[in-house]
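pinned: reference chain
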Amino acid sequence: MRPANSVVAVVDDEENIRETVGFALRREGYPVELYATGLEAWRAFQLKLPGLVILDIIMPEMDGLELCRRIRSISETIPIIFLTSRDDELDRVLGLEIGADDYLCKPFSMRELLARVKVLFRRAAIDQGSAPSKAPADAPVRHGELELDLQRYTVKWKGLAVNLTVTEFMMLHALIRYPGHVKTRKQLHQDGYPHDAYVSDRTIDSHIKRVRRKFEETDPEFDRIETVYGLGYRWKE
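pinned: its structure tokens
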């Protein structure tokens, strides 16, 4: 079940991307609002916020990072997905605590984007209490002091929340399914981006680096994600 507000705002100065994403979302039944600049979107959002925002980084008048900050100043809960053109732009996002829920690199798979939209709306519906109760099979996964809620895509470590994006959550889940086993970057790519999206090894490294940092902010002694040089990563038992 979707939240009451299922409007998706697409903010991108590239008309082709803006129209293509809007068409795909409408085909899935979502109401869509399209904006060519960050400033245009911000003026509209001050009057009424959409249910979810898909946001480019590099735009005229107001870039995506500034727009995200302004959105977060009036709403901590609205889901935000960033679209990035290059890995160095992704690094800019990963290096800032600006409150986005997920990131996709251009060119991206439309199936991948739609899957992320569905996940974030489902998480929002659960948080608002409008989704069906969880079945026993969907109970949180516990591994030592780590707890993953597979419905809400949320994580707790030693009882404290660790705020991961959807992509980060999926990669973490891949690591803990087989603790002690090495997951290659290719395998993490398949788990974090299951719908044929292309991202580089450097992007995978950036995601893992950010996951580590978020756990370390919660627990400075956290050391469970180990780099196996030349191979990939593993969750230490």
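why pinned: Residues 136-235 form a domain with the Arc Repressor Mutant, subunit A fold (CATH 1.10.10.10). The chain has eight helices and twelve strands.
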